[in-house]
Amino acid sequence: MTTTAAKDPAQYPALRNLQFSPIKEGEEQYIVLWDPTGLSKERLVLPLNYFFIIQHFDGEHSLQQVGALYLKRFGEFLMPDKVQQLVADLDQKLFLEGERAEEARRQQSARYRESPLRPAAFAGRSYEADGAKLKKQIDGFFTSKEGPDFKPSENAGKPIKGLVAPTYDLKQAGPVYAWAYKQLQEAVQPDVYIVIGTAYAGLGNLFAVTDKDFETPLGVVKADRPLLEKIRERFPIAFEEDLCHQAEHAIEFQLPFLQDIVGGKKHFTIVPVLCSFSALSVSEPAVLQQVVAFLDGLLEILKADGRSYCVIAAGELAHLGMRYGDKEPPTDFSFHRSMQHDLEMLKPVEELKADEFANYIIKEQDQRRISGFAPIFSLLRLIEAEKGEVLRYDRGITDQYNSTVTFASMAFF
Q1: Cα 337 to Cα 129, 246, 344, 376, distances in angstroms
Q2: What is the distance between the alpha carbons of residues 401 and 185, in angstroms, rounded to a whole number?
Q3: How buried is 389 (Cβ within 10 angstroms: 0-12 exposed, 13-18 middle, 19+ buried)?
Q4: Beta-carbon neighbour count of residue 204 at 10 Å?
Q5: What is the pTM of this model?
Q6: Between 279 and which of 20, 91, 178, 361 could a Cys-Cys bridge form, CB atoms 3.0 to 4.6 Å apart?
């Protein structure tokens, strides 16, 4: 029996799962890198030739091989001292896999598990950090000209079953959130909210549940301990990655609305769930079986509990442009074509047809990168409603190259 010697990470560096975006300064183009998991708080701006280098930091290419590829691509030698300094800088910033990143993960995990709650990670950045100012900000979303109108919903007074809400920056998309939460404001409100969000940094498993209470500038939102204990008994693997909740924003962005609309009237609890699977992945029987097993099990737990609940699916729709892998920025024509596809895609969601929703994206080969597929698919498997409705649709521009994210608000009764 032969064994393969481990490769020296100093000679075979492996970049962690980072996010990046193109930026422009004058006539020069650069790439900015950051860590979506929050393990590293650093950002790194690289010229395009250095970005070419780190794209080959996959743990399989040696520095010597990277140098040969660089010579072939740019027609010049890559000086060893420069690439070694780049490796050292990346390691210092915790951008590389290895002992430093592993130790940082252990320390981060220990701090999170020792904490009695999950602190607000985006207060002061994506929304107001002061409670009074936050309430005023939320009120402004409802009264904005882009916000919901004042006439009562046709579903006012009915038990609400589910919402789809954005996860885009609240300062920009707040009025679109308000379209969804106005429906909750006027509905018969349940005591329990299953808040299912996109795990933008990805997961090793398909779902990640945490039993932490969530803190916001408006106070503490309590996790539903009885339900979470039942989920842990049945799906212990779902709690293995609860640390990912620390840096993800999808659930956090929903909570100030729940506190403002429901919290002033009654006590409520949440079940916080992050998920990470695509429509293409559930076309594989093994993946679909795992997804359905968790969701069917969760539905059994909710039914056995007996309390009314509302499922909130927090996620975005299409991702267009260079930031997301397209070769060119989106044009007005390509955006409007994508908008048409989004609204067609949401028709089976309105009709509560989870499989047709998945099949629409699969037919497109997920070329528009529908990041909210997992929470919306989960919602459709968990609620028992008569109908859904798209309330509002919009987009956000995420960089200087007009990279675009689309999102919508929906309600289910």
Answers
A1: 38, 36, 11, 22
A2: 38
A3: middle
A4: 10
A5: 0.90
A6: 361
